[in-house]
Amino acid sequence: MYFSTIAAVSTPRGKGGVAVIRISGTDAVNIASRIFRPKNRKKIKDFSSRVQIYGDIISNEKDEVIDDGLLTYFLAPSSFTGEDIVEISCHGGEVVTGMVLSAVLAAGAVMAQPGEFSRRAFVNGKMSLTAAEGIADLLDAKTEEAALLSSKTSRGKLSEAIKEISDSVLSCASSLWAYLDYPEEDLQAFSDDELCTLLDQNIEACQKLIDSFSTGKAVNSGVSAVIVGKPNVGKSTFFNLLLGEERAIVTSIPGTTRDVIEYPVKAGKVLLNLSDTAGVRLDTGDPVERIGIEKALTVLSEAELVFALFDLSRPFEEDDRRILSYLEDKEGSAKIIPIFSKADLEPEFDGDTTLDFGKTFKFSFSKDTDLSELFAEVERYFISDHGALRDGRILTNARQKAQIMKACELLCTAREQILNGAKDLASLSLEEALAAILETDGKSAGEMILDQVFSRFCVGK
Questions:
Q1: Do the beta carbons of residue 8 and residue 101 sit within 8 Å?
Q2: Residue 62, Cβ neighbours under 10 Å: how many?
Q3: Beta strands in 248-352 (DSSP E)
Q4: Which of 102, 118, 269, 457 is the most buried (most CB within 10 A)?
Q5: SS3 (DSSP) at 313
Q6: For residue 128, what are the contacts with CB-CB under 8 A and spacing of at least 6?
Q7: SS3 state at 124
Q8: What is the rounded average pLDDT for all residues in the chain?
Q9: How many CA atoms lie within 13 A of 363 on its CB side?
Q10: What is the pLDDT of residues 201-217, one digit of tens each?
Q11: What are phi and psi of 226, to 5 degrees?
């Protein structure tokens, strides 16, 4: 239980039509009553909960009107945080919003920390931890697909999948506990074979969630992608084409791009954290360009997806061969898509048989270039389960994946222990597995985990 009443501006800073100041805590309505006067002179508590009240917002210290606006209050436990909440809507100027917040703080509230409203909602049982993470992801979403997935997570779709596993594991553990506590009473709900079958099902369910992480990451936080090639093969043109706007400088002069340019790009349902890089060549005497090439190779070494560009109108050269050697080193740790640029010109390239990385693409990079097949190839590699994506039963961050992997390993251990007759050890393994599953959704999460999750939120959410 929290004893302080917190307040913050819940709308973005800047000039706008409306701003909302949110107050949450046991003293929320009393604090609001000190700085808000309904126009009809009634008291706030004389109005029903969830009804908007029009009135003046008063500076408690100077007793002067700051602004007029609307107030709505929500009584615990029927509110976002599970506490009494008051929301005051005023005009959206940055100065007037700050004056209203200052009046609320002067009346007895304390400034909310980042994510504190959502954290109180979690602590008060109004949302699960994965749902809270879904809200944070929804606020950060860069694509429609990411927003839809985050919305499903925030509404508890992932929690449902986790609860199904935890309920089943609890049944298995309870059966073993009954046997161990009363071995002569035949109270074990499941035979050893039935327990192993149930554990197999739970292991499979955990593995499905683990496998879903690549899809969740690709949609939600994105895939690190890089465009590489020798100078003047069309890397910056391709970068601009993917973005749909002119971000990188394009000239006929080799070595124009000197630094790494990064930007998020939507490729079908996949979010690409895309980098355009300096052209890789051996014979540069320019120290600045050399630094750019070193940066390009560093980005290449860390990428999960590589668009390798080769100029179809020029012969296979030593610089192409060098790039090919880097790609061969990356094979297995990244998806490599060879792309032939300048396909509208007379072909001179004679090294296509060496590019054995799967499907290749040929483009002229005009403004009407159709990239749908390229995006479909990216999706095929990074989206493993479209059904789970539609359902929202997908892990979206490394914390969730680590917990489910830990649970899965413990379930496998418990199964082996049952087969070996070590039911006492199996019982302990199931307890640890259950704790790991519950912690995924915050049922037994420590303060460090909560601090990590809610620090991602903005103040006022």
A1: yes
A2: 9
A3: 261-267, 270-276, 305-311, 335-341
A4: 118
A5: coil
A6: 122, 156, 159, 441, 442
A7: coil
A8: 86
A9: 27
A10: 999 999 999 999 999 99
A11: -140, 145
Could you count the other beta carbons within 10 Å of the beta carbon of residue 386? 11
441 vs 52: CA distance, rounded Å: 35
Q: How far is the C-alpha of 394 from the C-alpha of 379, rounded, in Å?
A: 16
Going by C-beta distance under 8 Å and a sequence separation of 6 or more, which residues neighbour residue 319?
Answer: 230, 231, 280, 281, 282
* pLDDT per position as a tens digit, 10-57: 998 888 889 999 999 999 999 999 999 999 988 998 899 999 999 999
Report whether pLDDT(338) > 60: yes
Residue 130: other Cβ atoms inside 10 A: 25
Indicate the SS3 state at residue 265: strand
- The reported pLDDT for the residue numbered 348 is 77
Rg (CA), the chain: 29
- Whether 139 shows a pLDDT value over 90: the answer reads no
Which whole number is the average pLDDT over 176-204?
81
Residues contacting 79, CB < 8 A, separation 6+? 24, 85, 126
Are residues 339 and 225 in contact, defined by beta-carbon separation less than 8 angstroms?
no
| Predicted pLDDT of residue 404 | 97
**Are 460 and 98 a contacting pair, CB within 8 Å?**
no
Distance CA 395, CA 399 (A): 9
Query: Which SS3 state, helix, strand or coil, does residue 179 take?
Result: helix
Coarse DSSP helix, strand, coil percentages of the chain, rounded to the nearest 5 percent: 45, 15, 35
